[in-house]
Amino acid sequence: MLLPVQSARDLAPTYRAPLTRAMYERMVEAGVFTEDDKVELLYGVLVEMSPEGRDHVHSLMYLTRSLPMRLNDRALVRVQLPLAVSDDSVPEPDFAVIPLAHDPEDPLRGLLLASEVAKTSVSKDRNVKRQLYAEAGSPEYWLVDLNAREVEVYRDPSAQGYGTEVIAKAGETITLSTTQNVTIPVDEFLPPER
Fold first, then answer.
1. CA distances to 2, 3, 9, 77 from 6, in Å
2. 141: which of 21, 79, 112, 133 fits an S-S bond (Cβ 3.0–4.6 Å)?
């Protein structure tokens, strides 16, 4: 039977409530998304994640080797895992640092660092995700901007955003402010120049 519909607009709801984290988690558990569906929940909206190019993979590969060694069993590095930061957001930071003694049910407790590595998603990561991590209280957020070949380091979070911003360029180092004596060269974040 054909429906008496003139256009898809006739079927559009007049109000669409944002997704909650609970709804999103039920969808994940029910298998709504396949492995090919690269999405994350940001402020109640399902957002497609950018494909990972060669530079992104290089950066993550070296950081996931270097950062745990530098942390020397003082903390854990979570790589591209969901992080429930609020009732309407479950981003998947490229890496996050959490204390060894953490509550698996509350990964935000004690969160030391959230970070994104970006080439095509710089604007989203600089604007939307930076604000999201600040609101969640992540004491530090690093945005590895592969285009500019630099790392934006944000600290002092509040509901309005981060109060401090430092740009670290190739040849410089960054010290993780929440963990003593963990310094990493910016060059370890960056793929070789071509």
1. 11, 9, 8, 53
2. 133
Q: For residue range 3-44, list pLDDT tens digits in order.
A: 444 554 544 555 556 889 999 999 999 999 888 888 999 999
Residue 149: alpha-carbon gap to chain centroid: 18
CA gap 133, 151 in Å, rounded: 16
Tokens representing 118 are 């970006």
